[in-house]
Design goal:
The complex is a heterodimer of chains A (about 90) and B (about 230). Chain A is mainly alpha-helical and about 90 residues long. Helix content of chain A is about 60%, strand content about 10%. Chain A has a single domain, classed as Winged helix-like DNA-binding domain superfamily/Winged helix DNA-binding domain (Arc Repressor Mutant, subunit A, Orthogonal Bundle), CATH 1.10.10. Chain B has one domain. The chains are: A mainly alpha (about 90), B mainly alpha (about 230). Chains A and B meet through helix 4 of A and helix 1, helix 2, helix 5 and helix 6 of B.
Chain lengths: ~90, ~230
């Protein structure tokens, strides 16, 4: 039974992707692959969902650039608050 | 019973349910099962704190005690599934703790079933009560261990003041459960039953500890963030 790795929740993956995008003005998929530690299939799947939710938007379709939206920034702020709430109880969200 | 008892009887469930509401509010935002579990656990604990306010029906007591047990099992599972506790070889520790809790549960059940009370045939509800209390004791042991682990790990890793306040709150709550176990251990039980003053004093101490426990947890949740 492996206890070393733990699965990330969908919310945490979204937050990791958003943090990676926020670190730069606009991020390429290859950069996000590395920063969010996801496979190409999983990343494109999550990016699609995040675009539908309005957390990110595309810029320059050919280059595959994405930018964070205002809603995405608000999500990160809220996620951080809830993350700290979890930490208060000694749990990871 | 003084007026302070009545105030605490009302305040304790209110504070416990407030914690459940704060956790549920956060769950609604992010839909994390751990937040839902916390919310449910504190709602169940709040329900258990309603015992002094209901009629002295044994079945009602048993049901509410079972709520408390379920709450502790939920909390223990949340901490069990937590993999952030680094610095400790948690895998082996889990097996050791699991085995110890299982042995303690079987031992307490065996004791209360075959040694402690011989009147179960006459009073079947007494068996139900003792069964729940012995399971509660096992759950308490489990939560004591996990609280110590969490306290140890976070003291060494995070050093988050809010976390320490929550842990202090949990320790207060656990103290009440450990102290209330005194009421079911035969020598102490007989001593207390024969002296009403001791029971009254112990009840007040338990209520103050419970009040302190829930209040500390609520304060930690309402404290401004970024106190690290």
């Amino acid at each position: 039974m492996s206890e070393e790795s733990s699965y990330r929740s969908k919310c945490r993956i979204y937050a990791d992707i958003l943090r990676a995008i926020q670190g730069t003005d606009q991020a390429k998929v290859t950069y996000l692959l590395h920063e969010a530690n996801l496979s190409y299939e999983r990343l494109t799947h999550h990016l699609g969902k995040m675009k539908k939710l309005g957390l990110i938007e595309s810029r320059g379709e050919e280059q595959g650039l994405v930018v964070i939206t205002t809603k995405g920034k608000k999500y990160l702020v809220e996620f951080r608050k809830i993350e700290e709430f979890g930490e208060t109880f000694g749990i990871t969200i | 019973m003084g007026s302070i008892d009545y105030i605490l009887w009302i305040l304790i469930p209110l504070i416990a349910i407030s914690i459940a509401i704060v956790a549920f509010w956060n769950y609604l935002k992010i839909r994390s099962w751990k937040l839902l579990a916390l919310s449910v656990a504190f709602a169940l604990l709040a329900a258990n704190e309603l015992i002094p306010l209901i009629n002295g029906n044994m079945l009602n007591y048993a049901i509410l005690s079972a709520f408390s047990l379920l709450a502790f099992v939920i909390l223990a599972y949340v901490y069990y599934s937590e993999r952030k506790v680094r610095g400790i070889k948690i895998t082996k520790l889990r097996w050791i703790i699991g085995s110890l809790v299982a042995i303690c549960s079987i031992a307490t059940l065996f004791y209360f079933t075959f040694v402690g009370n011989h009147y179960y045939e006459l009073f079947p509800q007494a068996f139900l009560q003792d069964l729940i209390q012995s399971l509660l004791a096992s759950a308490t042991i489990l939560l004591v261990i996990y609280t110590i682990i969490s306290l140890y790990s976070y003291y060494h890793i995070v050093r988050n003041k809010n976390t320490l306040v929550v842990m202090a709150g949990f320790i207060c709550l656990l103290s009440t459960y450990l102290l209330s176990l005194v009421l079911i251990i035969p020598p102490f039980k007989h001593l207390l039953v024969s002296n009403f003053d001791y029971i009254t004093q112990l009840q007040l101490v338990l209520m103050l500890l419970t009040f302190a426990g829930y209040t500390l947890i609520l304060i930690a949740l309402l404290r401004p963030r970024g106190s690290r």
